[in-house]
C-alpha cells in the first residue's frame, strides 16, 4: 500500500497546524424538531418499549426510536446506522450514555414502522442488529469496558460477558415489566473504567494471584520507586535478586498483603497479574446513581468469584438471571434493586437469591469497612 | 475464508443481542473485498487478527495486549493510547494497535454526514473498529499504527474541524446529558455549559499538568443520566429553588387513569390502578406531599427535589423556577482508596451564560490551584479531599460551611482548631502558668 498524506508535513509539524479546537458545537447536529423546541419541552411518554414521544409547549412532537448496540461497532455497522438515519430520520441520530442509538422522527406511524424495520435487521449469525427497547422499567444496554479486545489489565472479557448477559436478559430489554429500571454495568478490572461502583447489577473482572515478578527486566522497564508507591497496602518493596551470578535491582512482594488491585502493574509492566486460573468475575449489586426516592448508592459485592467460562460465562449469567428474576418477583413498584435488598434485609437477599454468604463478602479495607458491619440487634432469622 | 479459526467466538454469533463477533467478521469481509478500492493505510486484515488474538484470550483466559508506550500527536500529552499485541508474529495486523480518542459532540447528537466523515478517516487510516462511545464519552477509534496518528489528527482538525479527547493526567473529555435538547427536566443548558468549559480548558485537556485525571460531567437534573455524582471529579447536577408546579386537573387525570403513570415506564406489567397515595405521597423521601380532597399539595420548603413525583406524573408536575446547579466534588471508582461518591460542595450556583459562566470558572480554577498544590502524584481530588479534609477544599474553593455539606455532624470531637480561632491565640506564658499551678 502506498502512503497517503493528509497534508501533514513531518519536517514542519507546526506548519498550518490546527490544535485546541475542541468538539464541534452540538447545535449543528440537532434534528429540526429538536432545535426548534430546545428548552421548550413539556412532557414525554413511552408509547411502547423503545419508542418515546416528547411533546413541546409548541405542540410539536418528537418520536424517538431507541435500539441497542454492542458499543464495539465497526465502520460498516456505523455506515448502516447512518443509512437508516438518512432513510428514516432526516440524517440525524444520537447515542445515549448507555450505548443505545436513537433516531428522532416527527410522525408516530413512521416511528412504529422504523421500530419494525430495526427489529427485522439481523446479522448472518442470527443476532439482531438493532433490537429496539431499553426504555422505562427495563434492563437497558450495559455500560462496559474493553476487556480482552484491547486492554492490558483485564481479568475477563467485556464484550463477551456483555453479549452473554444481554442474551440471557434480552426479554427484559424488550419489555417494561420490572419494578424499576435495572442498570447493569461491566468493568474488566478493578480500575473500573466501566464505573460499576454505582450499578444495580455489576459484573467486575478480578485477579486472585499476586503479580509475577519479571526480575531480569523490571529495572529496565520500571521506575522502582513508582512501583513501590503504587501499592495501597505497602506490599511492594525494593529488593535485589541474583540470577546466574548477575545481580538485578527489582522489587519483593509481601503476597499476603496483596489485594489484587493491579495498581503496581499499571506502573510497572514487569509485574503482570493476569492468570487463566486466578482471574474471573465478582458480581456486585444494589448501586444507583439517581437521587430518586433514595440516595445514590454504591454497589455491594454479593458473589466474590465466578470463574471465567468463555465464550458464554454460564455460571455468571445464571447468577445474574436469578438475582434479576428474584428482584422482579419480590420488589415493590418503583423500588430499585438495592432499595429492595435493604428493605428485606441483606440476610434475606442471600436466602432468596440462593447465594452463599462467605467471609470474602465482609469488608476489611480501611475505615469504610466498619460502617458496613452490623451495629444493632435488629436482624432477621 | 477466515484467516484464523475462532470456534469459541463463533458461539457468540447466536442469541438475540447484537453480536460484536458478527460485526467484526462483516468488517473483515468488507476490507478483504475492498469494493471501493481503498488504499488501506494499515493492514487490511487487522479485524481478522483482532478476532485471532481475542480467540487466543478466550482459550487461555489471559489478555494479549501490552502496556501502551508514549505515542501521540505533536504538542499534545493525551488523546492517544498506545497499544501493542504481545504475540505480534502471530497477529501482525494488530502488532501496533493504538486507540485514538475523538471529542464527541455534547449529548452525542450526530448528523450522518459528520459520522460518515469520521468513518471515512477511520476506514482509510485505522482498523475500522470503534467504540461508540468510550466510558468517559469520547468517540473511541480502536487500533491504528504510529505513522497514521498525525495524519488522522490533521484530517480531523482540517477537514472535520474536530479535536481529540483527553487521556492521562489531563482534564478528561467532559460529557453532558442531552439536557434541554430533548428533556423537560433539564434545569440548565447542560450541553452548552459542557461545551463552553470544554473550549475554555483546551490547554488542560490536551497537556497533562494535573496530579492525575480530572473529569467533569453535567447532568441536567437529579435523575443523573450521565452519572455526574458517581463518575466525575467535579459533577454538576441541575436543581431548582422554586416550588414544583402542580396542575391539579392533570393530577386528576392521572388519578382517574386517563394518563399512564411514570410516562408509561411500567406498562409491561399489570400493577393495578394508579394509587397516588401509595405511589407518590408515601414514597416522597421528605414527606412533603399531601393528597386530600382530590388535591395534591406540597410543602415545597421541605422538598428535596428527588424528582420522584415529577417522574411519576410528568404531565402534571413541572420543575420549579429559580434554577441552577448543585456542584459535587471527588467522585471516583475504587482504585485506590475505595469508591467515592461526589460530595456536595456548592448547594446552589446560577448558570449564567451572560457572564460566560464566570462564577463557575472561578470555582473550578480555585479548586484546581489547590489540588495542583496539594495533590500527590496519581491522587484523584477525591482522595486529596479525604486526606486533607473537606474544609480544606471548601476553603480553597471559597465556599462557606453549610449544614447542607454533611449528612450529619462529626462523630468525634477532634477538631483541628487554628490559633486564630481561639481567644488569645496559642502563645502562652509558662511562668504565668506556673504561678497559678505549682509543679
Topology:
The complex is a heterodimer of chains A (381) and B (439).
Chain A: H1 32-36, E1 41-48, E2 51-56, E3 61-67, E4 72-74, H2 75-88, E5 92-95, E6 101-105, H3 108-120, H4 159-168, H5 170-174, E7 184-187, E8 201-206, H6 215-221, H7 224-230, E9 236-243, E10 246-253, H8 263-267, E11 280-285, E12 300-307, H9 314-330, H10 337-344, H11 346-352
Parallel strand pairs in A: 7-8
Antiparallel strand pairs in A: 1-2, 2-3, 3-6, 5-6, 8-11, 9-10, 11-12
Chain B: H1 7-10, H2 20-33, H3 46-60, E1 65-66, E2 80-81, E3 84-85, E4 99-102, E5 109-111, H4 112-125, E6 129-132, E7 139-142, H5 147-159, E8 175-176, H6 190-200, H7 202-206, E9 216-219, H8 228-231, E10 234-240, E11 245-246, H9 248-255, H10 276-281, E12 289-292, E13 295-298, H11 308-312, E14 317-318, E15 323-329, E16 343-349, H12 358-374, H13 381-388, H14 390-397, H15 430-436
Parallel strand pairs in B: 8-9, 9-10
Antiparallel strand pairs in B: 1-3, 2-4, 4-7, 6-7, 10-15, 11-14, 12-13, 15-16
Amino acid at each position: 500500500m502506498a502512503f497517503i498524506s493528509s497534508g501533514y508535513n513531518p519536517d514542519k509539524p507546526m506548519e498550518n497546524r490546527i490544535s485546541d479546537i475542541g468538539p464541534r458545537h452540538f447545535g449543528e447536529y440537532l434534528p429540526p424538531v429538536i432545535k426548534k423546541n430546545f428548552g421548550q419541552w413539556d412532557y414525554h411518554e413511552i408509547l411502547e418499549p423503545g419508542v418515546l414521544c416528547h411533546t413541546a409547549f409548541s405542540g410539536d412532537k418528537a418520536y424517538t426510536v431507541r435500539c441497542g448496540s454492542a458499543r464495539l461497532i465497526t465502520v460498516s455497522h456505523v455506515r448502516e446506522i447512518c443509512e437508516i438515519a438518512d432513510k428514516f430520520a432526516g440524517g440525524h441520530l444520537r447515542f445515549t450514555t448507555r450505548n443505545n442509538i436513537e433516531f428522532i422522527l416527527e410522525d408516530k406511524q413512521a416511528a412504529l414502522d422504523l421500530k419494525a424495520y430495526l427489529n427485522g435487521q439481523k446479522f448472518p449469525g442470527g443476532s439482531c442488529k438493532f433490537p429496539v427497547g431499553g426504555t422505562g422499567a427495563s434492563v437497558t444496554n450495559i455500560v462496559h469496558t474493553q476487556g480482552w479486545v484491547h486492554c492490558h489489565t483485564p481479568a475477563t472479557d467485556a464484550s463477551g460477558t456483555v453479549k452473554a448477559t444481554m442474551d440471557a436478559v434480552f426479554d427484559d430489554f424488550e419489555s417494561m415489566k420490572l419494578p424499576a429500571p435495572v442498570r447493569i454495568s461491566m468493568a474488566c478490572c478493578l480500575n473500573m473504567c466501566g464505573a460499576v461502583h454505582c450499578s444495580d447489577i455489576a459484573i467486575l473482572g478480578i485477579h486472585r494471584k499476586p503479580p509475577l515478578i519479571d526480575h531480569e527486566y523490571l529495572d529496565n522497564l520500571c521506575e522502582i520507586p513508582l512501583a513501590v508507591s503504587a501499592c495501597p497496602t505497602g506490599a511492594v518493596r525494593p529488593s535485589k535478586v541474583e540470577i546466574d551470578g548477575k545481580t538485578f535491582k527489582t522489587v519483593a512482594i509481601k503476597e499476603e498483603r496483596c489485594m489484587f488491585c493491579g495498581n503496581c502493574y499499571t506502573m510497572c509492566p514487569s509485574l503482570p497479574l493476569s492468570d487463566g486460573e486466578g482471574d474471573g468475575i465478582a458480581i456486585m449489586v444494589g448501586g444507583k446513581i439517581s437521587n430518586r426516592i433514595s440516595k445514590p448508592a454504591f454497589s455491594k459485592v454479593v458473589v466474590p468469584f465466578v470463574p471465567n467460562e468463555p465464550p458464554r460465562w454460564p455460571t455468571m449469567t445464571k447468577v445474574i438471571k436469578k438475582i434479576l428474576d428474584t428482584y422482579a418477583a419480590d420488589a415493590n413498584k418503583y423500588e430499585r434493586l438495592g432499595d429492595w435488598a435493604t428493605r428485606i434485609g441483606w440476610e434475606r437477599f442471600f436466602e432468596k437469591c440462593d447465594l452463599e454468604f462467605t467471609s470474602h463478602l465482609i469488608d476489611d479495607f480501611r475505615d469504610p469497612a466498619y460502617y458496613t458491619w452490623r451495629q444493632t440487634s435488629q436482624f432477621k432469622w | 475464508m477466515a484467516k484464523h479459526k475462532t470456534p469459541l467466538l463463533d458461539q457468540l454469533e447466536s442469541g438475540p443481542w447484537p453480536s460484536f463477533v458478527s460485526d467484526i467478521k462483516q468488517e473483515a469481509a468488507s476490507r478483504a473485498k475492498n469494493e471501493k478500492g481503498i488504499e488501506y493505510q494499515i493492514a487490511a486484515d487487522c479485524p481478522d487478527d483482532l478476532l485471532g488474538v481475542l480467540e487466543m484470550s478466550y482459550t487461555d483466559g489471559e489478555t494479549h495486549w501490552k502496556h501502551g508506550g508514549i505515542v501521540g500527536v505533536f504538542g499534545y500529552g493525551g488523546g492517544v493510547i498506545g497499544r501493542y499485541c504481545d504475540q505480534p508474529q502471530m497477529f501482525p495486523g494488530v502488532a501496533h494497535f493504538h486507540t485514538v480518542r475523538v471529542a464527541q459532540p455534547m449529548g452525542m447528537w450526530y448528523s450522518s454526514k459528520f459520522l460518515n466523515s469520521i468513518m471515512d478517516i477511520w476506514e482509510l487510516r485505522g482498523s475500522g473498529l470503534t467504540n461508540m462511545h468510550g466510558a468517559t464519552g469520547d468517540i473511541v477509534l480502536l487500533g491504528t499504527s504510529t505513522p497514521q496518528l498525525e495524519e488522522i489528527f490533521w484530517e480531523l482538525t482540517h477537514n472535520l474541524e474536530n479535536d481529540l479527547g483527553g487521556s492521562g493526567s489531563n482534564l478528561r473529555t467532559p460529557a453532558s446529558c442531552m439536557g434541554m435538547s430533548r428533556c423537560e427536566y433539564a434545569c440548565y443548558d447542560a450541553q452548552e455549559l459542557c461545551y463552553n468549559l470544554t473550549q475554555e480548558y483546551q490547554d488542560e485537556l490536551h497537556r497533562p499538568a494535573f496530579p492525575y485525571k480530572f473529569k467533569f460531567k453535567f447532568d441536567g437534573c437529579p435523575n443523573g443520566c450521565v452519572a455526574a455524582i458517581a463518575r466525575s471529579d467535579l459533577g454538576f447536577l441541575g436543581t431548582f429553588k422554586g416550588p414544583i408546579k402542580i396542575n391539579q386537573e392533570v393530577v386528576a387525570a392521572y388519578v382517574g387513569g386517563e394518563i399512564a403513570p411514570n410516562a408509561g415506564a411500567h406498562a409491561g406489567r399489570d400493577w393495578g390502578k394508579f394509587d397516588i397515595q401509595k405511589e407518590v405521597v408515601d414514597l416522597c423521601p421528605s414527606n412533603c406531599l399531601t393528597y386530600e380532597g382530590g388535591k395534591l399539595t406540597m410543602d415545597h420548603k421541605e422538598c428535596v427535589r428527588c424528582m420522584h413525583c415529577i417522574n411519576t406524573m410528568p404531565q402534571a408536575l413541572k420543575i420549579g423556577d429559580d434554577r441552577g446547579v448543585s456542584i459535587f466534588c471527588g467522585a471516583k471508582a475504587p482504585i485506590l482508596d475505595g469508591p467515592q461518591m461526589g460530595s456536595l460542595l456548592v448547594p446552589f450556583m446560577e448558570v449564567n451564560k451572560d457572564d460566560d459562566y464566570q462564577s463557575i470558572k472561578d470555582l473550578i480554577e480555585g479548586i484546581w490551584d489547590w489540588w495542583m498544590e496539594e495533590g500527590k502524584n496519581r491522587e484523584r481530588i477525591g482522595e486529596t479531599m479525604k486526606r486533607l479534609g473537606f474544609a480544606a477544599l471548601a476553603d480553597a474553593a471559597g465556599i462557606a460551611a453549610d449544614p447542607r455539606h454533611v449528612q450529619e455532624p462529626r462523630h468525634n470531637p477532634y477538631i483541628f482548631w487554628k490559633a486564630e480561632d481561639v481567644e488569645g491565640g496559642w502563645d502562652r506564658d509558662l511562668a504565668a502558668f506556673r504561678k497559678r499551678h505549682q509543679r
